[in-house]
Input
Amino acid sequence: SQQGEEDPQALSIQEGENATMNCSYKTSINNLQWYRQNSGRGLVHLILIRSNEREKHSGRLRVTLDTSKKSSSLLITASRAADTASYFCARETSYDKVIFGPGTSLSVIP
Amino acid sequence: GAVVSQHPSWVICKSGTSVKIECRSLDFQATTMFWYRQFPKQSLMLMATSNEGSKATYEQGVEKDKFLINHASLTLSTLTVTSAHPEDSSFYICSARDPRSFTEAFFGQGTRLTVV
Output
């Protein structure tokens, strides 16, 4: 399977709460990226974290990477209704291929 | 920044016809591009790696004769869905990486194909 795992598959929270999504993978990576996709639309790149990095921030987003556990997490703080979307982790392998996880569908309730 | 442009953004075709989707890197040359397919409420599945000047490399389970890939120049890859069937209806997205920098892969806007 290309995809590895992502959890939860679906997440529903109230506006203002934090949302945490997790991603696990099986093979070695060059880097790991997180993307957002609004329904039926293209991808929006959020953060890239390299294999030698452990944590990265961008605005309300925080990504961690644990290569020993082959896992990553995306934290969205102070969520907004506009954050409602699908979120995908995507790992880049040594062959420059980007393989997507199954994704988490996030619903932020106003 | 680097941009990957995909055309068309949507297309409707009749069963049995062929449809061509273009993927262009606008300000960098890409020896390698990637094609993905996404069914509703699912993730992106890598279909194939498009190699400039040589044959594409297809992922397991992807029919080479059905999804023809041509990468004739360093800025253009095309995906042709041949003899389209309704089950080929999907969202197709391409990506490319700027070889000059260690940045993320850039994705096209996607093409929504509907076969009727």
Observations:
- The radius of gyration of chain A is 13 Å.
- Chain A touches chain B at residues 2-3, 31, 33, 40-43, 45, 48, 88, 90, 92, 95-103, 105 (CB under 8 Å).
- The CA atoms of residues 86 and 105 of chain A lie 4 Å apart.
- Chain A has a mean pLDDT of 92.
